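WARN retry 2 of 3 for item q-0093 after timeout on previous attempt; input resubmitted unchanged.
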Amino acid sequence: MATAAQRLRRNQTIAIAFVLFPVTLLVIQFFTDDLGANPVERITHVTGEWTLRFLLIALAVTPLRRLFRWRWAAPLRRTFGLAAFGYGSLHYTTYLWLEHFFDWELIVEDVLERRYVTAGFAALLCMAPLAATSTRAMARRLGKRWKTLHRLAYAAGVLGVVHFIWLVKADLLEPLVYAGVLSALLGARIWLRVTRPPAPIV
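OK item q-0093 returned
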């Protein structure tokens, strides 16, 4: 029978393999010239969608853990949160480098004038301090402030959904699905806060 440490390593290995799969597939498609007619658009789309998916998965960990007593799931919140930031960084790097070739004047103008770019940039800014303070040592050092800070994950989720809605403009089905998932997670958070005492930082 596997020990708790062995189960943790197994779960983390599966989670890491899962988060690396989309970017690995992109790399394979790049070297096999299989990114379609517009490779930059394809990379931007894939990294953006997986940013939002991993962020929502990270937000889902705590409600699921508290509802179903899945203590084993707690460390995965950090893994998926860091994956969201990693893919968000790739998404934004693609925008900076492959779309605008680091033309900072054009980039600043874009961020200020195109609302979906502004929302996406703000979402990444929200995730940056979460990634920087994701370790147990930082959680202990910050104490109660750590939980307050990490509520920015919900702000990042809202901004990510808004970014997606403003980007697609017409075909809203997919971003509205993400919006529905995020709304359910926010509702679960409120319900758990009202009905159950808060869980300790893990």
